[in-house]
Amino acid sequence: MKSGSRPTLTTRPLYYLDPGKLLFDARVLRVRGSQVVLDSSCFSPDLRGRAGDNGTIGSARMFGSEITPQDEHVHNLDTTHRVLEGTRVSCLVNSERRQGLMRAHLLQHLIRFAIQSISSCPTYPGHVNARGCAVFVEGYLEELEQIQQWVASVAADNAPIYNWADPSDSRRRFWHVDGIGTAPCLGVHLDSTGRLGSFEIERIVTNSGQVCTLGHLQ
Ligand SMILES: [Zn+2]
Asked: Which entry of 56, 69, 145, 184 is 20 to 30 Å from 80 by CA?
C-alpha cells in the first residue's frame, strides 16, 4: 500500500460461496455518494460485457455493481438512498433477473462448446444479459442447426455443472461439465445443464462484418 492511500475494502463474494442465497444481511463498509461497499454481497457484479444482478440494499434500489481496479466491489444505488456507513442492511437480489442471467450465461458456455465440437471456428464471448447472449465467431458458421441440436441435447442430458476456485488464487475460477469440457470463468452458474430451458440460436453479421451467434432465451 502506498503511503497515504487507503486500504482496499474486501467484500465476501457470497454469490460464489452460496449461489442460491438471494436475501442477505451485510454491514456497510463505505458510502461515497450513490456508491456503497458491503462486507459481503450476493450481488454478482457486471463483468466484461456480462451483466450482473440488481435488487435492493435497505430501502434503496441497487442498479448494478462492479469490481473496481482497486479490487473493491462497488454497488450503485439511486441518488436518494439513505444507506449509512457502519450500519447493517437487509439486501435482496432480483431473482427473476438472476435466473435469466444464469440461463443466458449457460447458453453462452454451451454455444461455444458446440461450435468447438462441430466446426473449427475460434469463438469469443460477447455480451450476456437476462434475455440472452452473444458469441463472436471467426468464420461463417454454416452449421447453425447442428449447434442448436447439440446444445439442446446437452440440456436434455441434465448433467451436473461443477464450479471451483484455483486453490492458489481465488480470483481464478472454473466451470466444468463431464464430457463437455472445462472453461475458466468468473460467472455465477446454474447447477445442471437441464435448467437451461427453451432457447433459440440465430446468426447475424455485424456492420463491421463480424459473424455473431445470438442465443435468445424463451
Ligand atoms: Zn461461466
From this structure: 69
The CATH code of the domain that includes 136 is 3.30.980.10
| pLDDT value of residue 4 | 56
Q: What distance in angstroms lies between residue 173's CA and the mean position of ligand 1's atoms?
A: 9
Q: What is the mean pLDDT of the chain?
A: 94
Among 60, 93, 126, residue at a domain's last position: 93
Q: How much of the chain is helix, strand and coil, in % rounded to 5?
A: 20, 40, 40
Check whether residue 137 and residue 207 sit in a common domain: yes
Question: Grid coordinates representing 198?
Answer: 427453451
> What is the span of the domain harbouring residue 163?
97-217
Residue 3 lies in a domain: no
| Distance from Cα 108 to the centre of ligand 1, integer Å | 8
* Highest mean pLDDT: which range of 92-106, 117-131, 134-148: 92-106
Q: Is the pLDDT of residue 1 over 50?
A: no
CATH number at residue 85: 2.40.30.130
**Rounded to two decimals, what is the model's pTM?**
0.93
pLDDT of res. 133:
98
Distance of CA 151 from the midpoint of ligand 1 (Å) = 15
Residue 1 lies in a domain: no
Assess contact for 101 and 108: CB atoms under 8 A: no
- Centre of ligand 1 to C-alpha 160, Å, is 14
- pLDDT tier at 111, thresholds 50, 70, 90: very high
87 plus 146 within the same structural domain:
no
Give the residue among 118, 105, 177, 190 at the shortest CA–CA distance from 147.
118
